[in-house]
Amino acid sequence: MHKRRGLFFQSLLLTLLLILPMAGAVVYLAGQRSERQAAQAAAGQSTLAEPAGARNTHRLLLAVQGEAPAFLLLRLDGPAQQIRFCALPGELTLQAPAGTTTLAACYLSAGPARAAELLMNTVGIAPDAYLAATADGFADLWGGGSGVRFDTSSVLPEEARGPLGYGDDPVAQLEAGGVPDFLAGAAGQPGVDPPALARVRGAVWAAFFRQGKEVLPGLAEAVRGASARLLTDLTAQDLYRLEETLTWLSGASGLTVDYETADLQPAAGSWQLTGTGMQTVQTLLAGGRPAETTPETAR
Question: Which residue in 151, 214, 242, 256 has its CB near the most CB atoms, within 10 A?
Answer without folding.
Answer: 242
